Amino acid sequence: MPKLPLRALPLLQGSLDLLVLGALASGATHGYGVATLVRDRSGGALEVEDAALYQALHRLERKGQVAARWGVSDNNRRARFYELTADGRKRLRADAANWRRYAQAVSAVLEGV
Q1: Within 10 A of 58 (CB to CB), how many other CB atoms are there?
Q2: Mean model confidence pLDDT for the chain
Q3: What CATH number is associated with residue 53?
Q4: Backbone angles phi, psi at 93, to 5 degrees
């Protein structure tokens, strides 16, 4: 029987902001760059829809956790580039620690299943 390609996993509620902040930790990039980083780093298991991504970027910008500026992309198009602020780095550290603790707890419950 041929192996079916794996589909992207649905994002868990509350995880999108963490994924966006994590993608931006490696430096400023545009929205498409954020989506590509999430997809590539997850081995294709996670994909972010455009509408949800830009809502998250704008929400994080309003909260002062992401800063935005206009620039030119690699394909010579005007694009909005996003980067973490000091508050964004602080939130990323806290949320990443909480996420790792949560994932460990879930793994412990599922051990042996």
Answers
A1: 13
A2: 93
A3: 1.10.10.10
A4: -60, -45
Which residue(s) pair with 84 in the sheet? 66
Q: Which amino acid is at 101?
A: R
Distances (CA, A) of 45 to 5, 6, 38, 41, 64: 11, 8, 9, 9, 29
Digit-coded pLDDT (tens) for 9-54: 999 888 999 999 999 999 999 999 999 999 999 999 999 999 999 9
Q: Quick check: helix, strand or coil at residue 23? A: helix
- 1 within some domain: no
What type of residue sits at position 68? Answer: A
Range of the domain at 84: 16-110
Cα distances from 54 to residues 13, 32, 43, 74, 103, in angstroms, run 16, 10, 22, 20, 26
